[in-house]
Amino acid sequence: MVRCGSVWFRKYGNFIDNLRLFTRGGSGGMGYPRLGGEGGKGGDVWVVAHKKMTLKQLKDKHPQKRFVAGEGANSRVNALKGSRGKDCEIPVPVGISVTDENGKIIGELNKEKDRILVAEGGLGGKLLTNFLPLKGQKRVIHLDLKLIADIGLVGFPNAGKSSLLSQVSHAKPAIADYAFTTLQPELGKIVYNDFRQISVADLPGLIEGAHMNKGMGHKFLKHIERTRQLLFVVDISGFQLSSQTQYRTAFETIILLTKELELYKEELQTKPALLAVNKMDLPGAQDMFHVLMNQLQNPKDFLHLFKKNMIPERTVEFQHIIPISAITGEGIEELKNYIRKSLDEHANQENGAYHKKQLLNLQISNTISYNEPPPKNGVTSPR
């Protein structure tokens, strides 16, 4: 953990975001036909969410990636009812989606101690099964981690997301002058002086067509679904992926990023968003920033410059727009403060909305109870 200005920042390395596992419920125990004894049921296999667990830890601890529950005990003379087999629990991080081999969702684990049954144990031998035990369920499952972070960094490659993260953290992620510097998501936490922690996900850069799984495509977009807020990071001088692709201004970059999010999942556009305009140390950056601000304040006046299929249904309204330079450190402290402020504002709004809903439900239930007619055979008080 390193000190950076007024905050501490804890940096986490690259991590595994999906695993394929073999699971099998335990076989049931043998019945005892002569005395009518029943064998014990085989144990079940459960996937259980734990806050401090990672998929990398799970893979390192269980390299075979096989999870088999215990067998039920056989019925015997001194114990006609066989004991149940021991359950097997697979510890996973919070934010896991569990699917079967066909891609069907079995369930999701969104908070600590959430659990999903993935392979059921076989029944013990009993009269219905001719006292023969049944085998446990076999199932191959996929664990897919969709990050849960406070802030997700959104931007095209080379927008300076990794440089921004290194400014905040004083860490040294690999940064190079080519597309897709960040090939895997990285998680970090800003820890303020009062011990408040804000998690930040640095995600692979988007490209046009990401919603169709081009580039890092869905690998990026699936993680952004579970961040509380988005931090758009754009290069003030614009973006060009290669000499074969079209140059995009900073404003065009923002519109295209918004369109990619919309095409993948419209709900992503409803997330609160901030905008960090990076590379303000470049010559002429201030003039370009004034032009960008004018465009963002009146976006509809400039949408005619785009092809129809590139225009999003709705443009993003940023909570705060912060000019920064990840190279010189300009605006970094302001950015940290705005991130915290925005999260606090929306937490208060959510709490207020929740309390209003609870109050409304209470009022409705009271109204219903007052207006309910007395039962037909009920006793009424005399007038």
UniProtKB/TrEMBL annotation:
Domain Obg, chain residue ranges per copy: 13-148
Name of the protein this chain belongs to: GTP-binding protein 10
Residues annotated as transmembrane: none
Keywords, comma-separated and alphabetical: GTP-binding, Nucleotide-binding, Nucleus, Ribosome biogenesis
Occurrences of domain OBG-type G (ranges): 149-344
Entry-linked Gene3D superfamilies: GTP1/OBG domain, P-loop containing nucleotide triphosphate hydrolases
Gene Ontology, cellular component aspect: mitochondrion; nucleolus
Family that this chain belongs to: Belongs to the TRAFAC class OBG-HflX-like GTPase superfamily. OBG GTPase family.
Localization in the cell: Nucleus, Nucleolus
Protein's organism: Acinonyx jubatus
One MF annotation (Gene Ontology) recorded for this entry: magnesium ion binding
PANTHER family: DEVELOPMENTALLY REGULATED GTP-BINDING PROTEIN-RELATED, GTP-BINDING PROTEIN 10
Leader peptide range in chain numbering: none
Phylogenetic placement of the source organism: Eukaryota, Metazoa, Chordata, Craniata, Vertebrata
GO biological process, alphabetically ordered: ribosome biogenesis
